[in-house]
Amino acid sequence: MPSRDSQTVILSRQTILLVTAVGVGLLTLCYVLGVQVGKQSAALRHPTARGAGEDLQELPASVADQLTALETSGGTDAGLRPPAPAAPAAAAKEAPPVEVRLPPPPAPEAAAPAKKAEPAGRWTLQLVSTPDAAEAQRMAAKAKAAGFPTATVAEKGLFKVRLAAPGPREAMDATAVKLKNRGFKPFAMKVE
């Protein structure tokens, strides 16, 4: 029988453990890198970043805002209409309507001492502050479509969309209520 050169590989316990540890380490590294690549590709699929208040715009207005809108609009508001009855049979089973009476708003004289005296000056409302120029343009167009002319100011790398016409604080507060009723989240700021 012809003799063949054979090589014998001898693996010790330490060598097996070392090879196993290196394999587990490489698999862990591949897993972590895969997760990171997945997160980045998911972020690239959703390039339109939402503004700071856009998630909150989808929520209904607070009860206080709805009551303020009801008072300022003279008692009619599209957002506070009662739902229409579903069917005549369902209307017959419903309880009779309950009349709800709200207390009258406090007199302006009584509310005046509670408020802090505001210094006289000109105020405006800021609608959004974002690093994304496209988002600022979108917000300005939305405000213009709602009947509020705006001006976009670039400060410190941010695009700030503000109302174009500043005025006294009371007028800006009234305008803020109107903007909130249309889905905006404005805040008053003093114009220097």
What do these coordinates show?
- This protein is 43% helix and 12% strand.
- The longest helix has 33 residues, at 13-45.
- Strands 2-3-1-4 form a 4-stranded antiparallel beta sheet, covered by helices on one side.
- Among the domains are: 11-44; 51-74 and 120-192, 2-Layer Sandwich (Alpha-Beta Plaits).
- Strand 2 and strand 3 form a beta hairpin.
- The chain has helices spanning 13-45, 54-57, 63-72, 88-93, 108-111, 133-145, 169-181; strands at residues 123-130, 150-155, 158-163, 187-190.
- The chain is of the alpha+beta class.
Keywords:
192 residues; alpha+beta; elongated; Alpha-Beta Plaits; 12% strand
Write the layout of secondary structure elements.
Elements: H1 13-45, H2 54-57, H3 63-72, H4 88-93, H5 108-111, E1 123-130, H6 133-145, E2 150-155, E3 158-163, H7 169-181, E4 187-190
Antiparallel strand pairs: 1-3, 1-4, 2-3
Helix pairs in contact: 3-7
